[in-house]
């Protein structure tokens, strides 16, 4: 072969190799990116030609797909109180893709999950239009609606999470303000864009799922964790005495820490742990926290799931105890301030663990996944995450929380069952003295046979401003939700 022919052959071979490499890059490496690119109309047409599966709760359809007469055969709709369920369902949008369960269970809902391979094969052979599978949630519709109505009727920004202590089933997950996912699932691109821009421009952040995506200082609700650490490590008993002073100076500083409204903890010079918990005395718990020590406190918090990276299957923000470099920081952390930050879900888990005798169950939002023919693909089984503390400690905490409930103000108390609870009034912001506090309430009921554990947070004092407390603002909401779940039971 002469030199010109050899050069031509080499050039042709290089071009063939380049074509093969390009085809491989496009069809293998970039395949997923191209497939999910919202500008890919062919993918959109294919995706919207299949009927997406349902999301439901206790027989109530939360999301489904209905036939249309436009080029996209199906429209995603949210027919049942969409704002109440939006933090759970999320949205399914042509332009902005998915959030919530629409994202977490997308492969089941769109029919591409490996569990549905047999169904896809049958559909292909029979010529039937392919369909997606269904997601059955653990939510209790009555509790969900009451929680949403309680928050929105007062114009509150906040969240409610309720859990079944013995199984970890999430019964309620509400976040307000919320939004209507129907406005984002529209086939009208201009309308979808207008809605998206308005929601993102809203300073109230209606698309933020405060139940799992936002952390807050827990305030005095964190005293449950401190008390658990003290009891579990034999550092203190409910009868042990601590300072009743209205204020103390933090170790090694000139900074003063005081009780709510600067009041004395009871009538004497000292107060028992029982009395300090019942009255939620900051000075006593600062002293107790230093006695417990940072290592034990962090270990107890970890045993309760604080600091874990989890999904339910919606991703959950990581709660934290924060850094505790010295005893001054430890004293502040022991009343749920400084760098301590919890999601409402994690605070509900703490209440549920006490209710379950110290055994922490994995929280979950999915009860069952189904095929298009309603056949069961999988069912979530309760999973124990270990003993956070023993049953005796749980019993002592229950008695303390019953005493706290008896001292807690606010409406909605029921004579049908006993509640065990702890309130929290959490300072925050750059000027906490002049910033309305977050109002917390965690509880479970019935106290001696718990069926529901709950956490409620109302941001920035709700309608009570600087006078807000967990008892006045958050407790009535939780009691209404508990009543809805325990009605007739």
UniProtKB/TrEMBL annotation:
Q: Which GO terms describe its cellular component?
A: plasma membrane
Chain segments annotated as transmembrane: none
GO-annotated molecular function: penicillin binding; peptidoglycan L,D-transpeptidase activity
Q: Where is the Penicillin-binding protein transpeptidase domain?
A: 158-482
One Gene Ontology term from the biological process aspect of the record: cell wall organization
In this protein, which residues make up the domain named Penicillin binding protein A dimerisation? 52-135
Q: Name one Pfam family in it.
A: PBP_dimer_2
| InterPro entries named among the record's database cross-references | Beta-lactam/transpept (IPR050515), Beta-lactam/transpept-like (IPR012338), PBPA_dimer (IPR054120), PCN-bd_Tpept (IPR001460)
- PANTHER family in the cross-refs: PENICILLIN-BINDING PROTEIN 4B (PTHR30627:SF24), PEPTIDOGLYCAN D,D-TRANSPEPTIDASE (PTHR30627)
Specify the protein name: Cell elongation-specific peptidoglycan D,D-transpeptidase
Upper lineage = Bacteria, Bacillati, Actinomycetota, Actinomycetes, Mycobacteriales
């Amino acid at each position: 072969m002469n030199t010109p022919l050899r050069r031509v052959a080499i050039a042709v071979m290089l071009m063939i190799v380049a074509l093969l490499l390009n085809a491989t890059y496009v069809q293998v490496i970039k395949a997923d990116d191209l497939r999910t690119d919202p500008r890919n109309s062919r993918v959109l047409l294919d995706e919207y030609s299949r009927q997406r599966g349902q999301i439901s709760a206790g027989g109530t359809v939360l999301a489904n797909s209905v036939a249309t007469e436009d080029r996209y055969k199906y429209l995603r709709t949210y027919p049942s109180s969409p704002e109440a369920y939006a933090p759970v369902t999320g949205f399914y949008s042509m332009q902005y893709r998915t959030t919530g369960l629409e994202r977490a269970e997308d492969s089941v809902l769109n029919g591409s999950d490996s569990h549905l391979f047999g169904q896809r094969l049958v559909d292909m052979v029979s010529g039937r239009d392919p369909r997606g599978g269904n997601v059955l949630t653990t939510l209790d519709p009555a509790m969900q609606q009451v929680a949403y109505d309680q928050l929105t009727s007062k114009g509150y920004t906040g969240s409610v999470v309720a859990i079944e202590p013995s199984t970890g089933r999430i019964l309620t997950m509400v976040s307000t303000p919320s939004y209507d996912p129907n406005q984002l699932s529209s086939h009208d691109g201009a309308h979808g864009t207008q809605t998206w821009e308005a929601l993102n421009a809203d300073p109230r952040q209606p698309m933020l799922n405060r139940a799992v995506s936002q952390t807050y200082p827990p305030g005095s609700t964190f005293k449950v964790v401190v008390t658990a650490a003290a009891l579990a490590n034999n550092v203190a008993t409910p009868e042990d005495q601590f300072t009743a002073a209205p204020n103390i100076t933090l170790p090694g500083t000139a900074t003063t820490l005081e009780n709510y409204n600067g009041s004395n903890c009871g009538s004497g010079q000292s107060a028992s742990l029982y009395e300090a918990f019942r009255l939620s005395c900051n000075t006593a718990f600062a002293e107790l926290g230093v006695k417990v020590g940072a290592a034990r406190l962090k270990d107890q918090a970890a045993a309760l799931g604080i600091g874990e990276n989890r999904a339910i299957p919606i991703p959950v923000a990581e709660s934290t105890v924060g850094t505790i470099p010295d005893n001054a920081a430890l004293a502040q952390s022991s009343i749920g301030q400084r760098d301590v930050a919890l999601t409402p879900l994690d605070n509900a888990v703490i209440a549920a663990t006490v209710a379950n005798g110290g055994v922490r169950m994995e929280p979950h939002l999915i009860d069952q996944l189904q095929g298009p023919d309603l056949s069961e693909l999988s069912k979530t089984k309760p999973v124990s995450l270990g003993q956070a503390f023993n049953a005796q400690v749980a019993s002592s905490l229950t008695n303390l929380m019953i005493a706290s409930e008896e001292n807690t103000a606010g409406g909605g108390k029921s004579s049908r069952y006993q509640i065990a609870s702890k309130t929290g009034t959490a300072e925050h912001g750059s000027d906490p003295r002049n910033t309305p506090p977050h109002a917390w309430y965690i509880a479970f009921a019935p106290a001696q046979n718990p069926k529901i554990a709950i956490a409620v947070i109302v941001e920035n004092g709700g309608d009570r401003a600087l006078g807000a407390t967990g008892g006045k603002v958050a407790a009535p909401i939780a009691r209404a939700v508990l009543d809805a779940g325990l009605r007739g039971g």
